[in-house]
Amino acid sequence: QEALQEVWGESELKVKQYSDHAFYMSKDNVDDSSACFNSQRVRSKGQTVMLHIAEDGTIIDLMVCRFDEPIRYKAPSVFYQQFIGKKLNDDLRLKRDIDGVSGATLTSRATVKSVREILTAHAKK
Questions:
Q1: 119 to each of 42, 64, 67, 104, how far by Cα in Å?
Q2: Distance in angstroms (rounded) separating the CA atoms of residues 76 and 71
Q3: What is the reported pTM?
Q4: DSSP annotation string for 78-108
């Protein structure tokens, strides 16, 4: 809820399901953007990210909502900022458009996997 409030404030939300993913949209939203959450296992525990996505599939923002691994495995904010402005394509991968983080390789992989899953579902809607 907190992440959704950062995007749309106190606006009333509607939810639509696409490919097993729930996409949240503001009923007042004039730009037709949406937000979706995805959880992935990092090492032995999870990370949940939220993507705020423009209607055309461009990533507006990526927020880490939950990170249950020890904090030393969390990637720095500059890693997550790499995703902003990107769309789903073959280069949206580690060692291509996305630089991994030494010491947080598993976090980097889990994040890319979450982003690709959400954007794939978004493209199918």
A1: 19, 16, 21, 23
A2: 10
A3: 0.93
A4: HHHHTTTT--SSTT-SBTTTB---TT-HHHH
DSSP string for 51-77 = EEE-TTS-EEEEEEEEE-S-GGGSPPH
CA 98 to chain centre: 14
Given this model, what pLDDT does residue 95 score? 93
Residue 69: pLDDT band (50, 70, 90) is very high
Three-state DSSP class for 84?
coil
Per the CB < 8 A criterion, the answer to whether 8 and 1 are in contact is: no
Tokens, residue 70:
């020890």
Helix, strand, coil fractions of the chain, as percent rounded to 5: 30, 30, 40
Q: Rounded distance, CA 19 to CA 88, Å?
A: 16
